[in-house]
Every structure is written in C-alpha cells, then in structure tokens.
Amino acid sequence: MISILVTGSEGSLGPFLVEKIYQTFRSVCVIRVGRSRKLPPDGRSRYYWGDLADFQFIQQIFSENKISYVIHCAARWNGFNQDPVILYNNLFSTLNLLLSISPEVKKFIYLSSAGVYQDTAPIESTALTCPSSSYCISKLLGEKLVEQFSVIKGLPYTIYRPFHIVSPTEYFEQGRSHVCTDMCYRIIERKETIDYNDLDDSKKIGFTWVEDIADAIIDNIENKKTDNEIFNIGTSEKHTVKDLVYEILSEATKSGLVDAQFKSLARPAAAETGLDPCFSKIFQIYGGHAQTEFSECVKKYIECKYL
C-alpha cells in the first residue's frame, strides 16, 4: 500500500485529485489535509484538520504516517493584491512541509500558478517575470523552495502551473472567483441580467476542466520523466467571456435554471485552437489525453454544481 498526502483536499482541485487517486491505485491510503470541514468525510481517507503554517501540526502528520507522495495544493488567496498574511501563510506552509519530509517520500508535487507570469501567456516555461501580488509571489518563492530542498535532500519534485481551472467545488467570493464561477453565480443564482453586447470579447482564456488537470497529475505521479520538471498545464482551446456567457445561458436555459431571451444572442465565433508551445511539454509527457471541450466543460460545471 502507498500513502499519498493531499493538502488543500477540499479546494477547487483537491477533491478531484483524491477521486483520481482511488481510481488509479488499488491499494492506497489518502491522507487529506484541510483547514476546515467544508465537505463530509468520504469514508475512505484519513483526515487531518489544521493550519499548515503550524510546524507541529505538520510534524504530527508525518510522524503518524508513512507517506509515499506529497501533493501540495493548499494556498490562501485574497485576490491579486498586496497582503503580507497571504505571503506568510503560503510560504511557511510550503516550508513546513519540506522541513518535515521523511526519507520514505518518493516525490513532492507542488501546485504553483500561472500567476507567476506577468501576463499569464508565456512562450516557454522558463520565461519567468516578477509577479506583483502577494499570492503569486508566494507561489514563485514556493517553487524556489521546492527546487532548493530537492538539491539538499535529493527529493524528486514536479511543479505544475495550471491555467484557469474550472471547478464546481470553487466557492464564489466577490472579486476573487474565477470568471466561470463568477458568471454562473450572477446568472443562475442572482438571476442577474447580463448585457451580452457590452462583454469583453478581446481577451481569450483557456478554460481547463478540473478533472483534466487531476488526470495529468495522477497519471504521472510515478512517471520518472516528470522528476525535477516544471510544467504549464491547460487546455489548447481559448474563448472569450462573451463565449462563456453564451454557453452558460444555453445550458442553464436547457436545464430550466434560468428563463433567458436566448434567441437574441449570436453564437460565438469558432474557438482559437492549436496547442500553445507553453503546454506542449506536459501533453507530450502524459500521453495527450483527450481534453474536455469548452461547451462540455461549462455543461459539467452547471450539472455538478446546480443539478
């Protein structure tokens, strides 16, 4: 039996990683770490509730378990702004985990962010810029800590920089949620009338379904080709916010969640497609799994969250 520690197990990505682990491994113990009990226990995992910035709490987890892999997703978020509390918490959470690593750990998997890039559209994974927000700085410094501890302890790692995860377990927070969560909340829950023609259709976003991210990470957890590598990870399709609102209204109307004047909306143009060079490495490594198409991504989000 192997044991996999998943921090942030109740966040946007964590629950899907846990489910993918159980689908992949026949004999596995998942150790889930969360700050608060937002989700009911799954009946299979071992749970720890506490603050990762508390060093003694982390030491307890490692002393009570023989851990094979660590997947570090947990991070506090307070928008793209300057917040020293966010910087302190995220940095010390990562440091405490690395300081507590036992010799049995085979790999440390760190979930960074596309926010380490100034415009989130890098040409290659090494083209780092200096992020301005405390959250993004904490992610970049976390990467450097992981790399340094790999040298000191000989600990293999894999760093992932996900681009715009669409997850139904993301909670809506004003000014902090991803655009899919934000728009679904406004349209479906608040019944807000959106001025479709005033929406921005210039910036294109790659909406990446959360299970695609989980699949890529867990399918490669034992893959030696991913050792000591950094990967950008996301979809090759790009769409505008106007495209997103169209799909939300379409699916929500079909499901009876909203009563929209849908005929007045024009169907969006074809998506901008083609594999961005910044994603090519991870797709080559993990075998080119089929990506969830944009319309299916929105449909799954609404079904999981509202139906």
Summarize the structure in words:
With 307 residues, the protein is of the alpha/beta class. The chain folds into 2 domains: 161 residues, Rossmann fold (3-Layer(aba) Sandwich); 95 residues, no CATH class. The protein is built from 9 helices and 9 strands. The strands form 2 sheets. A 7-stranded parallel sheet has the order 3-2-1-4-5-6-9, sandwiched between helices. A two-stranded parallel sheet has the order 7-8. Helix 1 links the parallel strand 1 and strand 2. Helix 2 packs parallel to helix 3. The two termini are 36 Å apart. The mean pLDDT is 85.
What keyword list fits this structure?
single chain, 307 residues, alpha/beta, Rossmann fold, two-stranded parallel ribbon, globular
Layout of SSEs?
Layout: E1 2-7, H1 14-24, E2 28-34, E3 46-49, H2 55-64, E4 69-72, H3 84-100, E5 107-111, H4 134-153, E6 157-162, E7 165-166, H5 179-189, E8 208-209, H6 210-219, E9 229-233, H7 241-254, H8 280-285, H9 294-306
Parallel strand pairs: 1-2, 1-4, 2-3, 4-5, 5-6, 6-9, 7-8
Helix pairs in contact: 1-6, 2-3, 3-4, 5-7, 7-9
